[in-house]
Amino acid sequence: MGLPLDHRPSLASNMINTDPPEHARLRRACAGAFGPRRMRHLRERAQQVTDELLDAVEARGRGDLVTDLAYPLPIAIICDLLGVPERYREDVHEWSLVIDSADDTDDAKVREATDVLERLVTEVVEAKRATRDTDLISDLVAQEATGELSADEVTSTAFLILIGGHETTVGLIATGALTLLTHPAEAAKARTGPAHRAAVIEETLRLHAPLQNATWRFPTEDVEIGGRLMRPGDPVLVSVLAANRDPAAFADPDAFRPGQRAGERKHLAFGAGPHLCIGAALARLQADVAFETLLRRLPEARLAVPEEELTWWPSPITRGLFHLPIEV
Fold it and tell me: 324 vs 54, 61, 166, 327, CA distance in Å?
């Protein structure tokens, strides 16, 4: 996630920026929100939202699978999880798009978007302090009241999950939909059941990792990386997309081969180890619902423009499409 956090405690006091044991404490604070019961509810909600969105596409006979599905579905789900009221969701969409699609020259725009979304999250957190509910922000506020979390940790964690919890899913749904549209044989297999859809999702994550580069890391002691000596404090940026297309790890790495990579290394789209993305299962869930419903309800869907005319986000951090127009 390419956010200019400026080391602001209200945004940077989250699990991405901490090591054990603080990392484990902050991760545990959110774990209940991603348990089996909540996931079952969110799957039902994702199905409801997806059906409503595709109703409109089907009625028109055309649509844009980015603006009509890949954005509104994850925003609805992550806002439901957090407890962000409906009135804020258009702002989340508008300003998240700025962050997601900005290139490395758009620093001022990204800072403005970050400021707006920080104020939004702060308002929601303050409201939850007065009237708690069963959502994740209410859970975090309750842990603040018992001294388990600081006020900055509550706001920072909510902000992280709001942005990081939907932007990668936007990219996954858009690129996965594109891949299914351009690989009809794989789309036909995906219609046969969840096993092949799961393979499609994993191969899409590998080939089009929504997070192209990980967050900055800094050695705490001298370490050699790729033949170069890195000193304490030197910045290190890991390219997830390059790792996922490493020919030493994956045969024919630029090919889309779902279900054909047994024995190869696992992709790193959601990280690995202690920092494995806490929302990975939720992203996969939404992609599965989106792809199953899309393939079932719009079996004749086709790209409305040549693939080479599609425009990818210029962001050095996140990978996704501006638009994916289809005819049905």
Answer: 14, 14, 18, 10
Q: How many domains does the chain have?
A: 1
pLDDT, tens digit, 9 for 90 and up, residues 231-270:
999 999 889 999 999 999 999 999 999 999 988 999 999 9
Residue 204's alpha-carbon distances to 32, 170, 200, 328, in angstroms, are: 28, 13, 6, 23
CB 26 within 8 A of CB 18: yes
Place of tokens 């980015």: 66
Q: Would you say residue 69 lies in a domain?
A: yes
**110 near 99, Cβ under 8 Å?**
yes
Residue 142: helix, strand or coil by DSSP?
A: helix
The answer to whether position 4 is within a domain reads no
H or E stretch covering 141: helix 136-145
By the 8 A CB rule, do 12 and 23 touch? no
- For 129, the domain range is 17-210+278-327
- Cα–Cα dist 284/270, whole Å: 11
pLDDT tier, 161 (very low <50, low <70, confident <90, very high otherwise): very high
pTM: 0.92
Residue 104 lies in a domain: yes
User: Is 312 domain-assigned?
Assistant: yes
Tell me the CATH number at 142.
Answer: 1.10.630.10
Cβ atoms of residues 161 and 81 within 8 Å: yes
Residues 6+ apart with CB under 8 A from 124: 82, 83, 84, 85, 88, 137, 158
